[in-house]
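Margin note: ligand = phosphoenolpyruvate.
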Amino acid sequence: MTAPAKKIRPLVVGNWKMNGMGAHLRELRRLNTGLSKHKFGCDVAVCVPATLVHRLSTMKFGAKIMTGGQDCHGAQKGAHTGDVSAQMLKDAGAKWVIVGHSERRTEVKRGGHGETSKLVREKVLAAQMAGLRSIVCVGEMLTERKSGDTLKVVGAQLRQSLPDTCNAPDIVIAYEPVWAIGSGLTPSVEQIGAVHAHIRKALTRRFGDAGAAFRVLYGGSVNPSNAAELMAIANVNGALVGGASLKAADFSRIIGAYRR
Ligand code: PEP
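Resulting structure:
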């Protein structure tokens, strides 16, 4: 039986992907100014390219906008040209790191990095060791949705990507249907609700009562017009936002779903 839902503080995360030069950080200055005018019942983080992590972390935002990276290597250091370790992100000022994003899980021939859930698990462990919080992404492809395999696929990714040592403040799950990312398409409220309920059940089954405290974000074409409806779905504890996080005006309207 699923444990009773606890009061979970939502989290809204921006994912800039491979976008943004130093000058683009002024959008976050604008965002910060906008956020300062109201009270919000959520935490906010922005996962910028590794080149901007240090600069963002040293901007004077107080605790309002937390800094994140978008990926880390599973090893602490070594001969891995071009990679960044969790410790390095932490050292640069990051508090969060995204792991297992579908753009990294996708096969190499389709432009991804072919990352498996086993590798994602290693990255979560590396992040834990470095003292970084992880946002672990899971989600089905359109073919899997159409063949009725969504819950099976998401369940397996979750099981294999999370180490047994998970605890709620340090690990956040992001359900991101691959076909909804950057496409302008979103699943129905019922479809999202069904996957989030499945994830919650899997977390409580595996981690006991602690499983009821994990934040489970929804990601995939979240925008200012649909944010309030999506964030109101049961077991949706925030959002992972790609394209719409690049502009302060759009991102602040999404965060506005949690305005008090
Ligand atoms: C993402 O990059 O994780 C994402 C959800 O992108 P978008 O919001 O652009 O669909």
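The domain at 9-18+30-258 is CATH 3.20.20.70 (TIM Barrel).
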